[in-house]
Amino acid sequence: MKKFWTVVLGLACASALPPLSAHAQTNSYKQTNLVSDTAGMAANTDSKLVNPWGIAFVPGNPFWISDNNSGFTTLYDQNGALNGSFTVAPPNGSSNPATPTGIVAPPSGVTFNVNGQPGIFIFDTEDGTISAWTGGASTILMVDNSAIPSAATGAVYKGLALIKNTTGSFLLATNFRSGKVEVYDTGFNPTQILGAGAFNDPAPPAVPTGSGSPGYAPFGIKAINVSNTAMVVVTYALQDTPMHDPLHIAGAGFVDLFSADGTMVRRITSDSHLNAPWGAVIPPASFGSFGASGNLLVGNFGDGTINAYNFATGAFIDQMKDQNGTVIANTSLWDMVFGGGGPSGDANTMYITAGLANEQHGLFSAITANATPAPTGDFNISASPSTSTISAGQNASFTVTVGGLNGFNSAVTLTCSGMPANSNCSFSPASVMPTSGGMVTSTMTISTSSSPYMHAGLISGNQTGGLYAMILPIPALVLLGAFLAKSIGSRRVTGTKWISGLAGSLALLFATACLLAASGCGGNGMNNPGNGTQRGMATVMVTGTSGNLTHSTSVSLTVQ
C-alpha cells in the first residue's frame, strides 16, 4: 500500500509540472575562432598568442589577454583585430619571458597604488609575481615571490580575482604550489585582515587512489555577482609531484563558493565531469539553453569541455555542444567571459582562451547560442472512448479529436484500418481543419452485421460440388475405357456382349451425372453464406494525414 501511494504521489507531482514549451532552447552553440598563433586556424593570426590564459577588459574597450608562453599581454577587439601588445615584467633578475596567467581590471572607484599611479590592469604569473600596467610599454613588478620560501619552492600563481567588500578591495591569487589563496590589499601587501583561512577550503576531499598527487590546490578563481551580491568561485585541481601543474584525471576537481568576506558558503560541485577545472562564469539569460536563471558554467582545463551546473544545487545539466550534438572541446581551456560592449564584445557572447596541445599554441574564440528554429506546424489526434463492446449488428461510435499545434491550419484526412472482418468504417466529416491551439472533432462509426460469421478456411457448397465433379467421373471413365480396350483388342466379343458392356458403362456415367447434380445444386442450400461480422476483439487504427504529416491513435472494439 505504501508503494502504491508513492507511485500516486509521483504521478501527481509529474502532472503538476508545466509542459515543455515548443520554443524551448536546445543545447546548440557555435564557436567562431577569432585569433590564433597558427595561420589558417582563425580569422586573425598573432604569433604572440601562445597559451592565452586570463581575459579582462574595461567595458567598451578591447580585450586584454595574458599570453603565458610568450610573456606578453595582447589586445584584441570583438572581431579579433590586434589593438596592441605589452610586455609582462619577469621576476627580478630573470632574463626569461614572464609567464602571465590571471588578469583583472580594477573597476571605477577602486585604486591599486603602483608607485603613486593607479594600476589599470593587474597580472599574476606562474613565476610567482604580481605586476600592474599603468600605461607604459611593460608592466611594473609589485610582488615577487618567485624564490619564497626558496627558489625551488617559490609561488606558482595560476589565477587572479579582485573582490570588494565592506572592509576594502583585495586581490586574490591562487598559489597552486602552496595550495592556498593569497590575499593582497590595494598596496600589494599580503594581508590576513579577512582571516587566516579566508577563501580557502578547510576540508578538501581526499585525492583519488593511485593518482600520486600531493593533494588538491586552488587553480582558478573568479569574482561573480549573484542577485547583486558579490561572491567568489574557486576551482580546484590535483597537483602534480612538483606542485606546479595540474593532473589531467577525469572526475578530479571540485568547485567552491565563498562570500565576499572570504567565508566558505558551500561546495558547488565535485562531480565526475570535472577534469582540472579552471574557468567559471554565470551566463546571461539570453545565452541559449544554458542561460537559464541560476546556472554556472565551468570550463575544464584537463579535457577542454564546458559543463553547465545548477548554481543552487550543483546538479550537472549538460556539456556544451554544437549544432550536431557534438561536445565542444578546446584543449587546455582557460578563461571564459561575456563581452562588455563595443570592442570588448557582445554581452550575449562568451569569449574563451585555450592553449591547445600541451599549451604550445593559442586560440581566442567567441561562442554564441545557435538560434532556435521556428517550431513547425503540426497536429495531434486522439479518440474516445478508448474501448467499446457491441453485439453483432450494432454500430460502434467514437469521437476523433484533432488539435492544431504551432500555427497549423491545414486539412487533415481521416482513415481507419484493422476493423473486424465484414464491418465498415466511416467518418463524419471525413476531413477536418483545426486551427493552431484549437481542436475539431469527427465521428467515426463502425457498422457490423448480425449474420453468422464463417471463417474463410471452411469449404462452401459450391466448392464441395466442384470437388465431387472432379473425383466422381474418374471410376466411370476408367470402366468405360477398359471395356472399349478389351472390345477392340479381342475380336471374339459377340455383338450382344459388346452392346451389354457399353450399356453398363453408360449407365454408370449417368449415375455419376446425377450425383454431380445433387452435390452442385444442393450445396448453396446446405451451407452458410458467411457474410456476418467477425466476432471478438480488434484494434482499430485511426490515422490523420495532412501532406507529409501522419499521426495515428487506436481504439479497441469487441464484437459479441
Structure characterization notes:
This protein is mainly β and 560 residues long. The protein has three domains: 25-200 and 213-369, TolB, C-terminal domain (Neuraminidase); 378-453 and 533-559, Immunoglobulin-like (Sandwich), CATH 2.60.40.2310; 461-484 and 497-526. Helix content is 13%, strand content 38%. It contains four helices and 35 strands. The protein has helices at residues 2-16, 461-471, 473-489, 495-526; strands at 29-36, 44-45, 52-56, 63-67, 72-76, 82-87, 100-104, 113-114, 117-118, 121-125, 129-133, 140-144, 157-164, 169-175, 180-184, 216-226, 229-238, 254-259, 264-269, 277-281, 295-300, 306-310, 316-319, 333-338, 350-354, 363-369, 378-384, 387-390, 395-405, 412-417, 424-428, 431-432, 439-447, 536-546, 549-559. Strands 2-1-26-25-24 form a five-stranded mixed β-sheet, with no helix packed on it. A hairpin with a 2-residue loop joins strand 34 (536-546) and strand 35. Helix 2 (461-471) packs antiparallel against helix 4 and helix 3 (473-489) runs antiparallel to helix 4 (495-526). The longest helix has 32 residues, at 495-526. The chain is elongated and about 120 Å long. The protein starts with a helix and ends with a strand.
Structural class: mainly beta
* CATH level-four homologous superfamily name of the largest domain: TolB, C-terminal domain
Question: Radius of gyration, Cα only, in angstroms?
Answer: 43 Å
Residue share in helix: 10-25%
Outline the biggest β-sheet.
Answer: 5 strands, mixed
Sequence of strands across the biggest β-sheet: 2-1-26-25-24
Question: What is the terminal separation in angstroms?
Answer: 37 Å
What CATH calls the topology of the largest domain is Neuraminidase
DSSP strand content: 35-45%
Return the average pLDDT rounded to an integer. Answer: 88
| Tally of alpha and pi helices | 4
As residue ranges, the low-confidence spans are 1-24, 458-468, 516-528
